[in-house]
Amino acid sequence: MANNMKSTVVRRLVERYKTEGKRSKEIAKALKEAGYLVFVASFCFCEDVVFFDTHEGVQIRLYS
After folding, report:
1. What φ, ψ does residue 34 adopt, rounded to 5°?
2. What are the φ and ψ backbone dihedral angles of 60, each rounded to 5 degrees?
3. CB atoms within 10 A of CB 16
4. β-pairing, 57-62 with 49-54?
5. Which of 63, 48, 51 is nearest to 2 (CA)?
6. What pLDDT, on a 0 to 100 scale, did the predictor assign at position 4?
7. Percent helix, strand and coil across the chain, each rounded to 5?
8. What is residue 57's DSSP assignment?
9. What does the CA dihedral 26, 54, 13, 8 come to, rounded to 10 degrees?
10. Model pTM?
11. What is the DSSP letter of 14?
């Protein structure tokens, strides 16, 4: 249950940052500063939420 809540919070934060026009690496940095553990490669992964940059903007996917 708690992990699901964290995933929901991270997804909402990523969506908010996306509407502000931030790119995935900037979003990952903000999440790290907020205390979340974020894995960054060609994509970013945090609390079962995957997000990455495309030509259309940041795409968000749930990993499960």
Report:
1. -80, -5
2. -120, 130
3. 12
4. antiparallel
5. 48
6. 83
7. 45, 25, 30
8. E
9. -140
10. 0.86
11. H
Confidence of residue 2 (pLDDT cuts 50, 70, 90): low
Q: What is the pLDDT of residues 16-59, one digit of tens each?
A: 999 999 999 999 999 999 999 999 999 999 999 999 999 999 99
Q: Which amino acid appears at position 10 of this protein?
A: V
The conformation of residue 50, written as its DSSP 8-state character, comes to E
Long-range contacts of 53-57 (CB under 8 A, 24+ apart): 53/23, 53/24, 53/25, 57/18
Residues 6+ apart with CB under 8 A from 20: none
Determine the Cα–Cα distance for residues 3 and 24; give it in Å rounded to an integer: 22
User: What pLDDT is recorded for position 54?
Assistant: 94
